Amino acid sequence: EKTWKHAVSSARLIHVTPALLASSIDRLPWERIGCVVWDECDTHRDEKKAQALAIQEAFKRVDYGVMGSGSLMDAKCDPMDIFLYLKICRPKFFPSYWSYMNTWCNVMMTPYGRRVLGPKNLENFRKYILQPNIFYLEKQSDRPRIVRSQVPMEMSPTQERMYWALVDELMLETSIELISAPNQVSVQGRLRKILISPRLIDPAAELGPTFDYLEAELEQDPHIVIFTPFRDAVELFETWLKVKGYDPVKFYGDQTMSTDDLLARQNYFNRNKSGKTVAIGTIEFSRGFELYSARQCFFAGFHYTPGKNYQAHDRLDRENQIMEGREAKFLV
């Protein structure tokens, strides 16, 4: 209550989280607030969720609003990713979700409703939507930027059998159950996991080529970062690394990891750069920490939004990073 009274009466800068804003928006002294700054705006994309609705309301109550994100939002920006931001900044120009999607995306009617398939009219989108509304700033630095590369991987016989069984028959018999995939979303999710490791689908299956490749890389450089889209893959990597004698440090976003815990894990990893300490985390949660002591990161699977992948490997690409030859390797 003391904090709120101070904010209402005299504070010049009020720092609130989206969750706190959603629960206490009417307690803020809007008659004294001239500008709202929304940092890490890429963390909210669904306009109907409570926190996003609160942010929209906050922007309506002030004369000036600014959004910022470390994620890639330049010419590679996907129309599907930024509707919420455009609606907040220019509500009169972007009032309708489906009007926007029909203009800038391919939309298909299905028995379950409309489905957005992907972007279209990208040249006009960049010219008329991105350039007037999104400003891309890059801090000048003498440091060489991180290098992205692809590492071609071949499926093992086990992966091929499991992969094509799901594609052709929409079901797969494992050592413990018969898995059925009732729709394409379910199929795609399981296929992505098979490519990371068959063991994510069948606990009795092999780990697969991804783990063989990373084992060889760890022998050359035991202080690396591994990113993956799935939390259960993080758990699998953690178990495997412990068996191999490495010290895994997990990073993923949920309510059990406090800011203090996140900072402690970051500092532990960066202090132990001469040891066999390996950071593993979900791509979705790759913000709010720095892994500048590592030279390499590896992607076992990708996020479907390219900017999320770039945000992840930028955990290594920090201002206090002094090593050269930093690489982000995508296992494909």
Structure description:
With 332 residues, this protein is an alpha/beta fold. Helices cover 38% and strands 18% of the residues. It is built from 12 helices and 12 strands. It has helices spanning 2-9, 18-24, 50-60, 83-89, 97-104, 122-133, 157-169, 184-196, 209-220, 231-243, 259-271, 306-313; strands at residues 35-39, 64-68, 105-110, 113-119, 147-151, 171-173, 178-180, 225-228, 247-251, 277-282, 296-300, 327-331. Strands 5-12-11-8-10-9 form a 6-stranded parallel beta sheet, with helices on both faces. A two-stranded parallel sheet has the order 1-2. It has a two-stranded antiparallel sheet with strand order 3-4. Strand 11 (296-300), helix 12 (306-313) and strand 12 (327-331) form a beta-alpha-beta unit. The longest helix has 13 residues, at 157-169. It is globular.
**What value does the average pLDDT take?**
85
Order of helices and strands: HHEHEHHEEHEHEEHHEHEHEEHE
Portion of residues in beta strands equals 15-25%
Distance between the termini: 53 Å
- Principal-axes shape call: globular
Question: How many DSSP E strands?
Answer: 12
Strand sequence of the main sheet, in spatial order? 5-12-11-8-10-9
> What is the radius of gyration computed over CA atoms, rounded to a whole number of angstroms?
22 Å
Helix content: 25-40%
Characterize the largest beta sheet: strand count, sense, and whether it forms a barrel: 6 strands, parallel
Which structural class is indicated by helix and strand composition? alpha/beta
Low-pLDDT stretches are none
